[in-house]
TrEMBL record:
Lineage, broadest ranks: Bacteria, Bacillati, Actinomycetota, Actinomycetes, Propionibacteriales
EC number(s) on file: 2.3.1.234
Keywords (A to Z) from UniProt: Acyltransferase, Cytoplasm, Iron, Metal-binding, Transferase, tRNA processing
UniProt source species: Nocardioides seonyuensis
Catalytic activity from the UniProt record: L-threonylcarbamoyladenylate + adenosine(37) in tRNA = N(6)-L-threonylcarbamoyladenosine(37) in tRNA + AMP + H(+)
Subcellular location: Cytoplasm
Its biological purpose: Required for the formation of a threonylcarbamoyl group on adenosine at position 37 (t(6)A37) in tRNAs that read codons beginning with adenine. Is involved in the transfer of the threonylcarbamoyl moiety of threonylcarbamoyl-AMP (TC-AMP) to the N6 group of A37, together with TsaE and TsaB. TsaD likely plays a direct catalytic role in this reaction.
Obligatory cofactor(s): Fe(2+)
Gcp-like domain span: 23-313
Binding site for Fe cation: 110, 114, 307
The protein, known as: tRNA N6-adenosine threonylcarbamoyltransferase
Annotated GO biological process: tRNA threonylcarbamoyladenosine modification
Length: 344
């Protein structure tokens, strides 16, 4: 099926077009620069930017794919979770297209779409798989038996998301927002053993109750304390060493728990998605640790890990292919759409 997908859950206006597992277009307009001076995404600014970007982004995607809107078999859109006002722009646009073209509408779960996107790069999803979703708003371990039916949460962060930790630590180090890519780059010339930052929820006692959960706020505080102490002593901060040591702490816990969760459920494939999956150290460490237990790791290329419309189209295409029922045309945007609801 030929499916057009729309993503507006945060600060990226994404329109993707896929045919089956083949990516035809992935147009993304980001308002990230408008948020940079605030150090985080400002919901009202994001909604307004989606309004401005929507029509040109749809046009750009159709042009790249070489299709006319009328050719599509279905329209898919992120209906949640995400920023309410931002989601509304995408949902209203998708409804207008579906109604105007007389095509079915699928309001899909953003997190399930982060999982489904991998089929555009590596072909049919391994099911069951253990999905680790790590982004600016989420850090979860999920068991995916059938991505079109729902995913089962095994654990998630109790406080900050992994991407949020990257962004906050980058800010402490004077690096621009969003900080993930800057920390990744700085870490390449740093020593990851320079500072022994804490690994959240890995003590024997924590593991009893939170075996598959994460906590990154203690780590962020530890970095802040360390930076303060250096400044007090008048010692210059080695940004590369702090970045590398912090990144190692995050990736260590993420990969350890992902492999543990997969082994616990007897799952042989780990799929990593979300913006933090673009992290170069995470990709290497996950592969290293999983392969030691005969577990395969799939991570889409970085451009498909951050928010985009192709992931929504990918999930939509799977829903059509597996004959799932579409959404009603009065589909609401649901800022806290649960993981168990793949199609709203
Ligand atoms: P949501 O959580 O709803 O998916 P989001 O916009 O925060 O929304 P993404 O676009 O998937 O999610 O991811 C953005 C996050 O990924 C930011 O926190 C950013 O710092 C982080 N990120 C991007 N590239 C890297 C990288 N190379 N290393 C670490 N973090 C990264
Ligand atoms: Mg984003
Ligand atoms: Fe996302």
């Amino acid at each position: 099926p030929l499916v057009l997908g729309i993503e507006t859950s945060c600060d990226e206006t994404g329109v993707g077009i896929v045919r089956g597992h083949t990516l035809l277009a992935d147009a993304v307009a980001s308002s990230v620069e408008e948020h940079a001076r605030f150090g985080g995404v400002v919901p009202e600014v994001a909604s307004r930017a989606h309004l401005d970007a929507m029509v040109p982004t749809i046009e750009r995607a159709c042009e790249t794919a070489g299709i006319a809107l009328n050719d599509v078999d279905a329209i898919a859109v992120t209906s949640g979770p995400g920023l309410a006002g931002a989601l509304l722009v995408g949902v209203a646009s998708a409804k207008a297209l579906a109604l105007g073209l007389g095509k079915p509408l699928y309001g899909v779960n953003h997190l399930a779409a982060h999982v489904a996107v991998d089929q555009l790069e590596h072909g049919a999803l391994p099911e069951p798989c253990l999905a680790m979703l790590v982004s600016g708003g989420h850090s979860s371990l999920l068991e995916v038996a059938d991505v079109t039916q729902g995913v089962e949460p095994m654990g998630s962060t109790l406080d900050d998301a992994a991407g949020e930790a990257f962004d906050k630590v980058a800010r402490l180090l004077g690096l621009p927002f969003p900080g993930g890519p800057h920390i990744d780059r700085a870490a390449r010339s740093g020593n990851s053993f320079a500072i022994d930052f804490p690994r959240g929820l890995t003590s024997k006692r924590d593991l009893e109750r939170h075996r598959f959960d994460f906590s990154f706020s203690g780590l962020k505080t530890a970095v802040a304390r360390w930076v303060e102490a250096q400044q007090r002593d008048g010692v210059a901060i080695d940004v590369a060493d702090v970045a590398a040591s912090f990144q190692e702490a995050v990736c260590d816990v993420l990969t350890r728990k992902a492999v543990d969760a997969a082994r616990h459920r007897g799952i042989e494939d780990i799929l990593i998605g979300g913006g933090v999956a673009a992290n170069s150290r995470l990709r290497v460490l996950a592969e290293e640790r999983a392969s030691a237990h005969g577990i395969r790791v799939r991570v889409p290329r970085p451009g498909l890990c951050t928010d985009n419309g192709a992931m929504v189209a990918a999930l939509g295409s799977e829903l059509v292919a597996r004959g799932r029922a579409p959404s009603a045309l009065d589909l609401p945007a649901d800022s806290s759409q649960p993981l168990t609801t793949v199609v709203a």
